[in-house]
Amino acid sequence: VNDGFDEVVARMDSAMVIVTTSVGPKRSGCLVGFHSQCSIDPPRYAVWISKQNHTFGLLDGASHLAVHLLEESNQSLAELFGTTTGDRVDKFSACESSRGPGGVPVLDDVVNRFVGRKVSVTDEGGDHVCVVLEAVTAQVGPAGATVLRLSDEVDLDPGHQA
Ligand SMILES: Cc1cc2nc3c(=O)[nH]c(=O)nc-3n(C[C@H](O)[C@H](O)[C@H](O)COP(=O)(O)O)c2cc1C
């Protein structure tokens, strides 16, 4: 692909989210830039998770995932979830979380978030798998805060290479 592809995608400047999930007592989550709504009725949302990530390892057994939209005040969470891996550290001992539907860990310090029931996981052969969620609960904070975007996080060194 020519350089234009990377540049067009960079100019989309995707909002940054943290995706979390759990299987029994095991919890995991990572910073994600690949995500989009993909159905209106029912309300569905897709996230793409790298096959290298600790989070990927929980997808088979997980019933729910939570998607957290990061704001400026959440920069330290972006670093925790984007640069460290559950293979080596327990990210949830370094932040405040509660249990949501299906036991999914919900990050207390992120005010805009929703929980989705896992509908499907599709591996089309690339380095990420597509997880489609049906939104079941959502919480929204005050409008107007600045959302963290890819351009704010490009200097982070990911816990895993894609
Ligand atoms: C700016 C940025 C965007 C990222 N986007 C994604 C993504 O869309 N999907 C993904 O699986 N990982 C993505 N990552 C990588 C993971 O967040 C990172 O490797 C994390 O440390 C993996 O944690 P885990 O091994 O505990 O799951 C991104 C990282 C950064 C810094």
Keywords:
162 residues, alpha+beta, two-stranded antiparallel ribbon, 9 strands, globular, binds flavin mononucleotide
What would you note in describing this structure?
With 162 residues, the protein is of the alpha+beta class. It has helices at residues 3-12, 54-58, 75-83, 150-153, and strands at residues 17-23, 26-32, 35-39, 44-50, 64-69, 97-99, 105-107, 112-122, 128-139. The strands form two sheets. A seven-stranded antiparallel β-sheet has the order 2-1-5-8-9-4-3. Strands 6-7 form a two-stranded antiparallel sheet. A hairpin with a 5-residue loop joins strand 6 and strand 7. The model has no long low-confidence stretch (mean pLDDT 97).
What's this, in brief?
The chain is α+β, with helices and mostly antiparallel strands and 162 residues long. The protein contains 4 helices and 9 strands.
Q: How many individual β-strands? A: 9
Q: Helices and strands: which structural class?
A: alpha+beta
Largest sheet: 7 strands, antiparallel
Rg is: 15 Å
- What best-fitting shape do the alpha-carbon axes yield? globular
Estimate the strand proportion. 35-45%
Distance between the termini: 18 Å
Strand order across the largest sheet = 2-1-5-8-9-4-3
**Weakly predicted, low-confidence segments:** none
**Element order, helices and strands?**
HEEEEHEHEEEEH
Mean pLDDT score, rounded?
Answer: 97
> Which hetero ligands occur in this complex?
flavin mononucleotide
Number of helices: 4
Oligomer: single chain
Secondary structure: helix percent:
10-25%
